[in-house]
C-alpha cells in the first residue's frame, strides 16, 4: 500500500519502509500532557527508529528515572524534554542531565516546547540541549533529527 501522500510530500517514510539497519533510539519523554505524549509516541515510533522506554510528567520524576536508566548503562539514548511541567521545569532536567553527562553518560537531550523563544532556546542550548524544537512547527524536524542520529 505504501506511505500516505502527506508523509511522502514531507520527505518522511514510515519506519517499516526505511533501511532495516538503523538501531532504535531508546527514548525517554518528559511531557506532562497525556494527549501530547500519546500523539508524540505514536508519531515517533511510526516515523523514526524510536523505542520509548519511559516518561515522566515532572522534573523530579524525570531526574529520578533518568538517573536509574543512565546508571544501568545503555538505558537511554535520547531524552525529549518539555520546558513547562506540572512540577518543576525542563530546565531542571537539563541541569541534572548535564551533571550525569559528566559521568560518561552518552545521552542526547533535546527540548520540544511551545515556548521556543530566542531566550529559551539560548538557555536550553547553554544547559546542554542538542537541539530545541517548537511543538507547533518542528515535529518534522524532530523526526528527521531522530532518523539522522539513529543512522550515525
Summarize the structure.
The chain has 152 residues and is an alpha/beta fold.
Structure characterization notes:
By secondary structure, the chain is of the alpha/beta class. Helix content is 43%, strand content 18%. The chain contains 6 helices and 5 strands. It has helices spanning 5-9, 34-47, 59-71, 90-101, 118-126, 139-151; strands spanning 25-30, 50-56, 78-81, 108-113, 131-134. β1, α2 (34-47) and β2 form a beta-alpha-beta unit. α3 packs parallel to α4. The radius of gyration is 15 Å and the shape is globular.
Oligomer: single chain
In sequence order, what are the helices and strands, one letter per element?
HEHEHEHEHEH
Extended strand count: 5
**What's the Cα radius of gyration?**
15 Å
Count of helix runs: 6
Principal-axes geometry comes out as globular
Portion of residues in helices? 40-55%
Question: What tags apply to this protein structure?
Answer:
152 residues; alpha/beta; 18% strand; disordered N terminus
Topology:
Blueprint: H1 5-9, E1 25-30, H2 34-47, E2 50-56, H3 59-71, E3 78-81, H4 90-101, E4 108-113, H5 118-126, E5 131-134, H6 139-151
Parallel strand pairs: 1-2, 1-3, 3-4, 4-5
Helix pairs in contact: 3-4
Amino acid at each position: 500500500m505504501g506511505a500516505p501522500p502527506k508523509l511522502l510530500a514531507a520527505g518522511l517514510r514510515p519506519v517499516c519502509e526505511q533501511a532495516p539497519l538503523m538501531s532504535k533510539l531508546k527514548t525517554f519523554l518528559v511531557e506532562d500532557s497525556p494527549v501530547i505524549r500519546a500523539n508524540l509516541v505514536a508519531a515517533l515510533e511510526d516515523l523514526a527508529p524510536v523505542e520509548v522506554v519511559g516518561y515522566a510528567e515532572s522534573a523530579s520524576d524525570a531526574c529520578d528515572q533518568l538517573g536509574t536508566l543512565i546508571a544501568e548503562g545503555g538505558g537511554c539514548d535520547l531524552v525529549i524534554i518539555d520546558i513547562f511541567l506540572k512540577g518543576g521545569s525542563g530546565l531542571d532536567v537539563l541541569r541534572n542531565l548535564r551533571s550525569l553527562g559528566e559521568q560518561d553518560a552518552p545521552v542526547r537531550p533535546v527540548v520540544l516546547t511551545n515556548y521556543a523563544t530566542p531566550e529559551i532556546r539560548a538557555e536550553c542550548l547553554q544547559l546542554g540541549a542538542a537541539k530545541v524544537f517548537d511543538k507547533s512547527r518542528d515535529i518534522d524536524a524532530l523526526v528527521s533529527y531522530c532518523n539522522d542520529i539513529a543512522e550515525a
